[in-house]
């Protein structure tokens, strides 16, 4: 294998160097308002020869006679001009550029105009230019066609489900692979234990699947990001092999620019309010006193009312808990500068955001340093280091079996029951559960993350001339993080006091070390109108994880230390993996008209049954720029690209699934062991996704109208899922098994343009529309309920051949066959973004996002009906029963239909207005700074939905490909408003 | 330039070669978190055999919450009043039976006992296989081990077959440790054939124990105090046998088994092995315990348990009662309860597996069915007087010679003596007396149904659909 790339190189070597006569072309590149553009790329067409403009926009480059220069810069439309000894080029601004480079290999890139895939990019401006989302995944919401991003709950600190082109896996996390500057990021959702027996008891497993924790991409500071590139499916991501089944999100952080030192200081202040409250405690209780609720009969309610609250005073507890205003602030300072030899970017960010519930919030401090070195003409070195410290307080929400979660406690709380603390003492909730205010004020559910991400890239130009270019690059990355969790409930909190060992605390340390290393040889050759890019390389990925916790129950009074507990529990879990890959890729470009690429990746992994076996993932793609042909005679259409791509990716089973380990069974201090109920599969191989994607890109009227249309067919073969055995054998399942095939078909349409471009007003607009449908095309195991996909009669998801794995099922069970309901995947999604600059200095932007006909399994109505707090509880139905009683589970005629509900929504994701302050008004101070910009913005400020609950985006079971959208009064999401101040020096 | 390049290429190649071994080394090939199953299947050490046997003793506790809680509610004894999970007082009371062919949700949360007891059965089988496949044990010790393990299997089969009723259970799994065996589970039998299997197992165990010498080659945990030797454990085996024969209506068999068990008409009622619980790290606590007056998820009694009781019954009234009045009643859907279940004093209290009290009641029942009423009355009076009730001759003279009356009396004593111990619902089914249970039929806007059996779990139904 090692020899093959070399062989390839030798075969391509015979092209010799021609000496050519020429001259030096020099000039200046300018952008909007005739400002000089630094960092613009000036390259000689069909050659390796290129340079970059300096701080004043000037360049000079040696060219041959008759050469043409391609001038490009991110954010501007590229131009091709004839080279001249003295020249001035001005570039026009553009929203989506054809000139920006997109990744097509592990060490190679191509111009977007030549890409054969619908590679979505999000620029810094699109990501953070408008408002401040709390986390990176939130900042991407609604911005890209084909990408479904939903918030698991509104709890501060993140927790988002990102699904690219439907589910690619069923058991594994749905999350795509994130790579930041070449570092493979850990995006785990670590368990905190908040959902375990000692706390909410939502899940009975040692580390709960229902802890409602955040996934760790939340740590990344969106403000450091220069751009994000999304490889949505295997056809684009094939070269990433066995980690890329759910797509790849490539993040590039900001780099220093040579020239003058620039300093950017920004300050945002704002506030957050609940986006929507249900109005639980505005409920009238007349009928409840007459009929009684599910949890208290009429007599009991009447007695309590007369003894505890003889007046007619009521309290809006929902508002007391969730109606607070959270203060938001965000300060950042970025420095950038350097020389030809060394350039740097340093960015620091301090963010502190309070939640809408008291004692909740999220704060993050991060610092990044990126240094680019060019010690000699043929060596490039880039190093980056990022330290992040984050702290989130999320309280308790969502599913619960102990009476802890705030949502349940609010739902069960009559508004006439006094619950406010009196001299620090919280009145007991006499009916059921727990005084929610005590949970708000006295419990802890905290996660602190310290994380260090570092990367390096070394590029060595081994050969460089007009025709040949051979480069050796080596990239490495380290992502080290510790997430330390504390969950604590004092011994005298009502529900703890009523437990056998009151007082519970659990301290968890999750440590993860991810390292990656790759080496590549890239060879470019230009022969006539053809250019060839050949690359070959090796990669290695490692992951080493240690999860441990110590829990104490029955704590000494007022003690938090779990070692004071009379009942102690401890656990230590190790995980590790190592993966090796080898890659070869060839790209052939004929004059930017026909671009063909083929490549293959082979991977082996210790996660597979056979750790030494290589699995092969091929890819091939073709792009044809029809408008670049000589015969093209329609000047209005400057780009017409037809493209098609095919690729395969894989995903190994998660760690531990190859092992069949004896279960520990302790009794009375004696160590026992027994046969496990879940078996490993020592022969498991990766699941494999194949995708064919094709589409057309059109640019018309000087790119003022852009259309991108893509269809894809993604098939996941030998899908890894647990194989449910006959439980009568005493074994419930084989943990991982190739159970069948899944198909995802979808359409993505993107329509962008600049409808207005005048002296005073420029209006850029973009509409995205996309849909995805999933289908189990083959299933060789018995039909099964997807684990953790819901709650029995409230709706669960099933794997059934010929049906969607994300559809809901429930009662009635006709002859033992559950009834099929709607799908949790939206029928379609759409987003509409607009940016309008007017009166020279103003910029207004808005992003609206709709998710259409996605269905949730919701218990919101049921829970609030049981508690008597739903706003329409007392409305009388035709049989003279209150609705709050007659629509409950178990009442005649009530089936799962009641709980599978339309969760469509339209949200204003982002809205902003900025004003660049004219320097003239500062008089003599004007030369002290470069520019000042102020603005106001909002994030998720409005929502339209028929949904009963806080937010239709809720997902109780976290980041799961299926069964995620189950809602049990999850933490309400918030609308956020900001004032921004920004100054450049 | 040219020289630099060459040097770099050479350095790169040398560097890559040097790193090659490290680059390709496998990091993780053995499970860092536990022992493999294979390690105990062949030539296990005595320590490993002991570990498996302790594991069986520990596993026996796993299904108890699901089994007692679910049957307790179906048998209208108790309600698990988890306000955040109304299915415990909704689905179990049969309000959704119309949607589920008259039973519970086959894919719902009420089926965990099924895997728990099936895995107990399997774990016991693995113990047998490991014991048979090792040279570390003598033949006598192997027989003792088999006797222990098969007794546990008989117990788990008895639970499963009664929970599943007419559905029957999978009776054979040909060779549990053979590759591929898991994919060929046996077919479902009938209720009767399931009980017959339990009988076979318990009798085989008895024979093995008889050949098993005196000492087990493994640790018997503290719950078996008094039953730790092979001959003493054999008495426990016969007690379980009596229970199985009772369900087969083999009255003579019951009496014969009881005769070899630890039955004592005069001895303490509480004698018998128990499941122990502790707060030791990673042990289990008693899952049926809750703090009185809890507002979280308490176990509360059906009021009929109190209102139907004979006055003075100390199982219901007074300081040692199994229930205690709550400071405020607890509503769980259609049921409002005035009393908490207080069977267990703490979360480390033991749960009885089978005790003399039940043996006496089985003795009484078998005697009545054998028309030996006088013996039965002695046994029934032993129970009655122990709990502050007057003897039958005084309290209920009309039933002394009335077989049906005496059966009702024995069922009633079982209702109070074995309260919330997984037997009430089985008893009314055994005698076809489902109608005596409260809360049935249409009441107000609700319809309640007492199940005949639990639904066959969805995983089993789907398995058979694909593997007919």
From TrEMBL, chain B:
InterPro entries recorded for this chain? SusD_RagB_dom, TPR-like_helical_dom_sf
PROSITE patterns for the chain? PROKAR_LIPOPROTEIN
Q: What is the lineage of its organism?
A: Bacteria, Pseudomonadati, Bacteroidota, Chitinophagia, Chitinophagales
| Family designation | Belongs to the SusD family.
The lineage's top-level taxon is Bacteria
Instruction: Write out the coiled-coil annotation as residue ranges.
Output: none
Principal localization? membrane
Q: Which GO terms describe its cellular component?
A: cell outer membrane
Which terms are listed as keywords in the entry? Answer: Cell outer membrane, Membrane, Signal
Provide the leader sequence positions: none
Source organism of the structure: Segetibacter aerophilus
Compartmental location: Cell outer membrane
Note the SUPFAM superfamilies from the entry. TPR-like (SSF48452)
Spell out the protein name for this chain: RagB/SusD domain-containing protein
Every copy of the RagB/SusD domain together lies at 342-436
